[in-house]
Design goal:
Shape: elongated
Structural class: alpha+beta
Number of domains: 1
Length: 164
């Protein structure tokens, strides 16, 4: 009887301690951008996330993230998307160390109010589709952004960043 009471007490204590564990907000997780639609004009609708000190900053960061990912990162197509055979959107710049090599150019390009805004739009954004997660320290925004990949590629070629 004593052994069963001891095991029961130990089990109850374990369950109680596990229930008191920290519950982290989703705003602390890193999410990757996803292509959710392709357009026939060479643009891509991308679901991107951004962080900032308030909702407006997080929203702008999400737009920058979408354009940044099209330039530098491989982006997965969302499940159920009519996509290419590879299932990924390849980055525009495949050059090794392109971020550091052209750092001055991209610092100006992605500055607040910079040229990146000319290559993204919220035309595919549905009402109430932007979601926010807020903590004491930051806000995270989930935004649908249309990125004009064809025009962006032409701009990088014109500025001698992308060589073809």
């Amino acid at each position: 009887m004593k052994k069963s009471f001891l095991f029961f007490s130990l089990g109850l204590l374990t369950v109680l301690l596990a229930a008191c564990g920290s519950h982290r907000s989703q705003a602390y997780y890193d999410y990757e951008s996803k292509v959710i639609a392709t357009e026939l004009d060479g643009s891509y609708t991308i679901r991107a996330w951004g962080r900032g000190r308030n909702a407006a900053d997080a929203f702008v960061q999400a737009q920058k993230t979408a354009v940044y990912d099209v330039i530098f990162n491989q982006i997965q197509f969302a499940t159920g998307t009519a996509n290419t055979t590879s299932g990924v959107l390849k980055p525009l710049l495949l050059e090794v160390n392109a971020k550091t090599k052209y750092e001055d150019y991209f610092n100006v390009f992605f500055a607040d109010g910079g040229e990146y805004k000319n290559y993204c739009s919220l035309k595919e954004k549905r009402s109430l589709s932007t979601k926010y997660q807020k903590t004491n320290a930051q806000t995270q925004a989930q935004v649908t952004v249309c990125v004009f990949r064809k025009e962006l590629k032409e701009k990088l070629i014109q500025d001698n960043i992308l060589k073809y």
